[in-house]
Amino acid sequence: MLKEYRLRKHLSQEDLEKLTDLDRKTIFRLEHDKNSPNLDTFAIVTEALELTDQEIISEIRKARINAKKKKENKYIR
């Protein structure tokens, strides 16, 4: 999700690094689901990307639905 929104804003990881004061390694890890952000980091990144509350909630819902589908498919096999 993070990378998709960053690219929609035509931002590089370096640009996001400057906007958020997070290092590029952290941004990379967040984009590739290697780390989960704490609440402060989440707020900093969503502000920098100018995401609305509705967009965030929508993405969380999509992620939960996808996770549920993956889990169901695992049991079907």
Number of domains: 1
In the predicted model, the low-confidence regions spanning at least 5 consecutive residues are none
Global outline = elongated
Query: Total number of β-strand segments?
Result: 0
Mean pLDDT: 90
Compute the gyration radius: what is it?
Answer: 14 Å
Instruction: State the end-to-end distance.
Output: 28 Å
Looking at CATH, which topology would you report? 434 Repressor (Amino-terminal Domain)
Helix percent band: over 70%
Strand content: under 5%
The ordered string of helix (H) and strand (E) elements is HHHHH
Task: Please specify the SSE layout and strand pairing.
Layout: H1 2-8, H2 13-20, H3 24-31, H4 39-48, H5 53-76
Describe the structure.
This protein has 77 residues and is mostly helical. It has one domain (2-76): lambda repressor-like DNA-binding domains (434 Repressor (Amino-terminal Domain)). The chain contains five helices and no strands. The protein is elongated and about 45 Å long. It starts with a helix and ends with a helix. The relative contact order is 0.12. The model has no long low-confidence stretch (mean pLDDT 90).
